[in-house]
Design brief:
This protein has 257 residues and is α/β, with parallel strands linked by helices. The protein has helices at residues 3-13, 53-61, 81-93, 108-116, 152-157, 189-192, 194-214, 221-227, 238-243, 250-254, and strands at residues 27-35, 38-46, 71-75, 97-100, 130-131, 143-144, 148-150, 163-165, 170-173, 234-235. The radius of gyration is 18 Å and the shape is globular.
Length: 257
């Protein structure tokens, strides 16, 4: 996760409540609609991904009997990479779909912070809502808003059986690196011993490659992570989302931007 981005976003959120769960651990909320073929369930996953977030998600699902094909809507600036991988596997285990989108419009403060932090393209976060990929029967329930899925969230999103990036939403990757500015890690071997750091990086790269293979994603996807500098993000646009099969509906994916 990008510390500079989080710091910027937290400063922005200090003065007023935001529509999204910025800077706080990921929480989950369920929406149920009466669709043509029966109840349609959408789960809002909003906030920072921690190592125990998958356990929180499993606890959230317990006893709810949420059917396969339900949609998980993601709004997250990232977090723990292994938490993201485990969350993605849990999503796939339940045969859920994933959408980079939100049920409420992202706040102006968050939008400005993302742009100031270097995340953004022209026309991102349009005020116009987009249609849900599997719309419920009521027209008023089909509007969803642009959102963002950055860093480890991008791996969690790949767990969806069907994957969508909402109109004007941000799907952005960057190099993963060990945060040795963190006092809890500064004296650890991975930050003080180059050989340990190199070994740990190789293990992480291998874990990511295995995960991408499990999810049916091209290994070429890792190139976009490598091309992005550690403190900068690479926003993937329509052609990239199509090329790497990040979106499963290629027609919808092609017109995302």
């Amino acid at each position: 996760m990008l510390r500079w981005l989080i710091a910027c976003l937290l400063i922005a959120s200090a003065q007023s409540a935001l529509a999204d769960n910025l800077g706080d651990p990921m929480t989950f909320k369920m929406y149920t609609y009466d669709a043509f073929f029966g109840p349609h369930v959408e789960i809002e996953a909003d906030g920072v991904i921690l190592l125990d977030t998958p356990d929180q998600f499993r606890a959230f699902l317990a006893g709810k009997d949420i059917p396969p094909g339900s949609d998980v809507y993601l709004t997250s600036e990232g977090g723990n990479v292994y938490g993201g991988l485990k969350l993605g596997r849990l999503i796939r285990e339940h045969k859920f779909n994933t959408v980079v989108g939100a049920h409420h419009r992202i706040s102006d403060r968050t939008i400005n912070a993302l742009h100031q932090g270097g995340v953004g393209l022209l026309a991102l976060f349009s005020n116009m809502p987009f249609r849900a990929p599997t719309p419920p029967s009521q027209v008023s329930d089909t509007d969803r808003w642009a959102s963002y899925c950055i860093s480890s969230c991008t791996f969690a999103m790949l767990g969806g059986v069907e994957r969508f990036v909402g109109f004007s939403s941000i799907y952005a990757v960057h190099q993963f690196h060990f945060n040795c500015d963190d006092p809890q890690l500064a004296h650890e071997a991975l930050c003080t011993d180059p050989s340990v750091s190199s070994s740990s990086s190789q293990v992480l790269s291998a874990d990511l490659a295995v995960y991408l293979q499990e999810m049916g994603i091209s290994q070429e996807f890792l190139k976009d992570m490598v091309l992005a500098e550690p403190n900068k993000v690479n926003v993937l646009i329509g052609p990239d989302l199509v090329k790497y099969h990040i979106c499963t509906n290629l027609f919808e994916c092609a017109k995302v931007r």
